[in-house]
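Hi support team,

I submitted a single chain yesterday and got back a structure, but I'm not sure I'm reading the token output correctly. Could someone confirm the output below corresponds to the sequence I sent? I've pasted both exactly as they appear in my results page.

Thanks,
R.
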Amino acid sequence: MLLLLGSIFISVWTDRLWFKSVGYSEVFRSVLVSRVGLFVAMGLIFGLFVIGNLYLAYRTRPDTVPLRRDDPSYRYRLALTPILKPIGIVLFLVLGAFAGSVGASHWDTYKMWRHGSSFGVKDPQFNKDVGFYVFDYPWWRFLTSFSFAMIVITVLAVLFLNYVYGGIRIAGRGPKLTRAAQVHLSVLVGLGVLTRAVSYYLDRFGLAIGNSKLFDGIGYTDANARIPGKNILIGVAIVCAILFFAVIFIRSWTLPAIGLGLLALTSILIGAIWPAVMQGFQVKPSEPDKEGPYIARNIEATREAYDVADTEVESYSAKTDLTDSELAASAESRVSTRLLDPTLISDAFEQLQQVRGYYSVPSTLDVDRYKLEGEKVPQDTIIAARELNLDGLQDTQRNWANDHTVYTHGYGIIAARGNQRGPNGEPVFTAKDIPQIGEIKTTTPPRIYFGEQSPSYSIVGRPKGAAAIEVDIPRGGATGEDGKVNATQNTYDGKGGVPIGGLFNKALYAFKFAEPNIILSNRVNSESKILYDREPRDRVKKVAPWLTVDGDSYPAVVDGRVVWIVDGYTTSNSYPYSEHRSLREATADTLTDGRAQKALPTDQVNYMRNSVKAVVDAYDGTVKLYQWDTKDPVLKTWMKVFPDVVESKAKISDALLEHLRYPVDLFKVQRDVLQRYHVTDAQTFYEDGERWKVPEDPTAPSNSSALQPPYYLSTARPGEDTPKFSVTSVYLPNRRQNLAAFVSVNSEATDTENYGKMQILQLPSETQISGPSQIANDFQTDKGVSQALLQYQQSKTASILYGNLLTLPVGDGLLYVQPVYIKRSAVEGSYPVLQFVIASFGKDVGFGQTLDEALRVALGLEEGTNPDDAAERPTTQRPESSGNQTASQLLDDASRFYDQAQDALKDGDLALYQRRMNQVGDAVEKAQRAVEQAEKKE
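Hi R., thanks for writing in. Yes, this is the structure output for that exact sequence:
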């Protein structure tokens, strides 16, 4: 018990110190008071109710009981009577602790009930505000279940005690009860039946948030059979309870037994058989007509609950017959394609900018946008924080002092232009090196003490005058402006961290981390602080336990400081009529499967809002929460629970606003919902012939069925001239691989009017536009592409990596772009290099070292010419040879074209190379046809 209480004390007290260090003591205090209050209240209610009823049963036991040594109750009585009081105390404590724990775990449900807000929307069945279902219903349902469990346990305990002390005797034809036991049990059972009546009342509202095979919410059978049935059962249960209470005045249990039997029979006939008969014989034969109005309710509520009600669905022709000049002009003016793949470029960042082995970047980098020199608009940027990775230390360096007092932080960010490659395919860095230089500048030393890969804990701080011991800029590093070597060690002076200079705090954390060195080491001094819980998502979840946190936090430079930006969601599973979704299933894709992004919990939700934008300072760990969705009633409720914790939206600085983006996990959930709920007509929804699906990722391993993740990139929507930073994805028809729609959301927070607007470009069903898997297959089987990559495929020293396959609406059509990386294998320090770009519009495939070159090849344009000159040259991509050539002549042509292609490849002229390889293919095909025609003539 001492160990248990001690561990609880250490956990609570260190949490108190942690919350104080980040300035959120009020959150800790409020949650603790709520949990303790509910623990005590629920524990006392449950324990006193059970023990009080047992005491009453003991006091009203019969004075004399026939003694029969073969009666088990006699032996129980002999054993229990001497220790009855200690048993009562233990039982009270055990039941109280159990019930208190259950109550404390529902602190958030209680808080939402106490402070609930109105949604301003009423459900169509009961005309109750949605806030009743989201805030009130869960609490009332919990209280009903809690009360019923308390009564059931009390009845069982009273039965046992009466049996032991003679209130119930098993003899003759059946049990015989004393008058006191009869009245006592009748009242308890009556209370239980009355509680059941309350449960029947709440069950009616539960149907509005219930699940069914066809849709969630109330259906025809619910409205016309189950709800009327519940109303009848409420009346029967009340009558039955009154009959049990009447036993106080009458000595017979006949009427209560009849009432209980009637309740059971009614629940079977009206609660189960009647709805089943109505569903089978009245609804099923005319299901589309009967369920139509209720399906319409479900569609409306689901689209509203997931914030997709205003989604724009536009018909998109997806032409494939634009002229070369039209497509080239459109592509040039409306696309700013991000070519660097954040999932493949990590090794390049690490190898080129790691500096030391104990620094690293995540396996998947982040996409942001920055205003760079020479650019009028912000550019897509691949960014990562250079974080500390203790696994990169040599084994001889690994000890407690190094791990927790010397190697304490990472340093700086690494960033590169998203749409450019260096001369050899390497990234074009905009922030690099230590100390950091580049177009993206920091005004303070960008030390990363809080990040996604930070150690579990670090102890920092030194007395005044003491030598610094934390590794900062690696020895032998770059020089400063004065030509002197910059300091290689540093002492943390941020305001974050918990002071542990005193013996008491040292002891607390020594026990918390099971590490005696925290007490024994002289490196833990009077000025020391301990940094822990350093992952940005964890810090946000801890200070705002009512938020669900996005799986992808990302670094940004804001006002010269490195910060982490984390999106927070408010969710509910009680929005009436809305379809439920598992967060884990809706957000799963290749990135979560590969753990590049954190997977969300398996919670079932049917309401979701990106209500909070959180910022975590990478140096001092400061956490700031900003209100983002100013209309969200759930956030308003939590802002009442925790005043002054979430700052107003108006306090978001312009510098921070430039780096806020539409969160990826919200987009995934909405994308999942819109697979079916892009349909707004109830009849079409029922037929389910317009269902879409998210494609599998064509770049994933062949044995994987993970979905293609959304992509952040800058693109212009139809009718717009300026590319906007957006998050994009595509849909396929159900059970098909051709494209059904392109979906995008404006992700530029500075564009206040259009931010968050979702647009779906729906392709006509009669147009067959290839989907991602089909395009990936076309890319890899294209003759020009395969021939250009043949040398790498046959090589044992290099491997080919296909990057993210991007889909872009261009010129009333869809343009596909995919970078191709080459990585030298079996070579230490090798990394993927962006070597080629493949582009496709319609049936034409282009291949080059740049997107411009690939587009020109796809369009049949000579490198260096203007699109307007296309009309003066042949418009076909693959020139035809003379029609009367023999098979032998055609094969000679093919051989000549092949030699020219190899010469072009050696010269690095990929455009000419692909054209010649296409001509090789054409000549071989014509030679084959010539042979076949000659054979037919013979």
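A quick pointer for reading it: The mean pLDDT is 88. Let us know if anything else looks off.

Best,
Support desk
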